[in-house]
Amino acid sequence: MGKTAICPGSFDPITYGHLDIIQRGAKVFDHVVVAVFNNQAKSPLFDIEEKLQLIREATKDLPNVSVDVSKGLLVDYASSKNADCILRGLRAVSDFEYEMQITSMNRKLNEEIETFFMMTNNQYSFLSSSIVKEAARFDADVSDLVPPVVAEALKKKFNS
After folding, report:
1. Which residue among 6, 60, 80, 93 is least packed, with the fewest CB closer than 10 Å?
2. Which fold has domain 4-159?
3. What is the pTM (predicted TM-score) of this model?
4. Residue list for the binding site for ATP
């Protein structure tokens, strides 16, 4: 049985920073499940179905990547998918403290599941879905920050 990693996030929307981690993770793991979780602290621009569609389109050329949704605890979801690992991207030192807390809690809940951190490519170290949405809201060109399908979806959201 191969190694499976869960790459969780709210992906509102998926960016080239997310895609960088997913693509690199797909080289390390036999299977990567991109799992959309609803972050209660955020009010999303895209609904779950829109997110799934955008992620599927952005990852369609990665045969060992699948896309799914979960509403429960990440470690429970990972167990249900027989995943060995949680794949997370780190942009900057500021991400580390938050990620360390989450990883420690996940480890307490299920010590069988490891967390694998990848540093985001430097060209995406500033990038977040929030920054992309803010720029797109004011009609800025975000085509070098998100896949074409996402840039188009953002235009539709903000120009309707």
Report:
1. 93
2. Rossmann fold (3.40.50)
3. 0.92
4. 10-11, 18, 89-91, 99, 124-130
